[in-house]
């Protein structure tokens, strides 16, 4: 059975229902638990993935062992395609943050699909361009924004994908530990913690373990600018 959420991935954009379903059926579901690693940075890559359930983090490790998270992805998002378009090793490690089911497609199979349905290529390019925009923005934030600003932005970004409306605002079950949140923001755990405690003291957020309730979106948005 093919889930609607999988069909929202850029891979399927612009395909008619029949073609999209046929492509989705060529993919193999893989179940993975929190902490599992789907592949490591530097591995040879021969397949890409679309997330059906759960959350995946993409991270890189420095020579001295520090980790930086490039992205947290959720249902309907795709990863593992760079090593196809630019043949070479995996550019990041993909690990499971919340128990996941991912749909796997061999690069070779995608290449065959691209030959038959070239419109898929345009949508994949658009997805890559969108990612480059986001990465440029994150790079500029690292240079120009302070840590609280980056924390506010990360929470808002996570809320667009993992947020659900509740009476008081938006609850974001990000499933990240404090360490992972710090790696996503590119700062130490202590500094990120301090920013979150300050937001909580101001009544902008409430922390609930691996979730956070955003209580004042306006103030957070202003802080993120
Ligand atoms: P690949 O290099 O095959 O394996 C790691 C994957 O992480 C990569 O493909 C992309 O799908 C994904 N990735 C790499 N950099 C980023 C980024 N800056 N933002 C989101 N995803 C990324």
Question: Explain this structure to me?
Answer:
With about 220 residues, the protein is of the alpha+beta class. Helices cover about 45% and strands about 30% of the residues. It is built from nine helices and ten strands. It has helices at about 5, 15-25, 80-85, 105-115, 120-145, 145-160, 180-185, 190-200, 215-225, and strands at about 30, 35-40, 45-60, 65-75, 80, 95-105, 165, 170, 205-210, 210-215. Strands 1, 2, 3, 4, 5 and 6 form a six-stranded antiparallel beta sheet that branches. Helix 6 (about 145-160) crosses helix 9 (about 215-225) and helix 7 (about 180-185) crosses helix 8 (about 190-200). The protein starts with a helix and ends with a helix. The model has no long low-confidence stretch (mean pLDDT about 90). This is Crp/Fnr family transcriptional regulator. Keywords: DNA-binding, Transcription, Transcription regulation. It comes from Cellulomonas alba.
């Amino acid at each position: 059975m093919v889930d609607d959420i999988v069909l929202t991935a850029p891979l399927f954009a612009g395909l008619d229902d029949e073609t999209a379903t046929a492509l989705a059926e060529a993919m193999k579901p893989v179940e993975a638990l929190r902490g599992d690693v789907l592949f490591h940075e530097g591995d040879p890559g021969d397949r890409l993935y679309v997330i059906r359930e759960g959350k995946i983090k993409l991270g890189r490790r420095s020579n001295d062992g520090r980790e930086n998270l490039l992205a947290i992805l959720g249902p309907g998002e795709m990863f593992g395609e760079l090593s196809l378009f630019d043949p070479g090793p995996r550019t990041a490690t993909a690990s499971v943050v919340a128990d996941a089911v991912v749909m796997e497609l061999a690069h070779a199979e995608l290449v065959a699909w691209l030959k038959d349905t070239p419109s898929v290529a345009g949508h994949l390019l658009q997805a890559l361009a969108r990612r480059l925009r986001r990465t440029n923005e994150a790079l500029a934030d690292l240079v120009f924004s302070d840590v609280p600003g980056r924390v506010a932005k990360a929470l808002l970004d996570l809320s667009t994908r993992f947020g659900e409306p509740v009476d008081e605002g938006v609850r974001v079950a990000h499933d990240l530990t404090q360490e992972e949140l710090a790696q996503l923001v590119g700062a130490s755990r202590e500094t990120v913690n301090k920013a979150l405690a300050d937001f909580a003291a101001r009544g902008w957020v409430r922390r609930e373990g691996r979730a956070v309730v955003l209580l004042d979106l306006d103030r957070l948005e202003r802080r993120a600018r």
